Amino acid sequence: MFQKVLTVGLIGAALAMAACNTVRGAARDVNSVANCTENAINGTKSC
Questions:
Q1: Dihedral of CA 33/37/38/39: which sign?
Q2: How far is CA 41 from the centre of its chain?
């Protein structure tokens, strides 16, 4: 079980690193998720 979780986590981390290969890109991705979550909570927009 732990091995499966670790494998999925490593694959997810590799995909995330490939998707945003710069610190600035990573910051934009995190900011986008934060905005989407806030909008969903407030019910103002969909993501």
A1: positive
A2: 18
Distance of CA 38 to the CA centre of its chain: 15
Look at residue 47 and tell me if it is in a domain: no
The answer to whether residue 35 sits within a structural domain is: yes
The torsion angle over the Cα atoms of residues 6, 11, 16 and 17, rounded to 10 degrees, is 100
Residue of 7, 33, 6 lying closest to 20 (CA atoms): 33
Residue with tokens 């997810």: 12
Q: What is the pLDDT of residues 1-47, one digit of tens each?
A: 888 888 998 888 888 777 666 667 778 888 988 888 888 888 887 77
pTM over 0.70? The answer is no
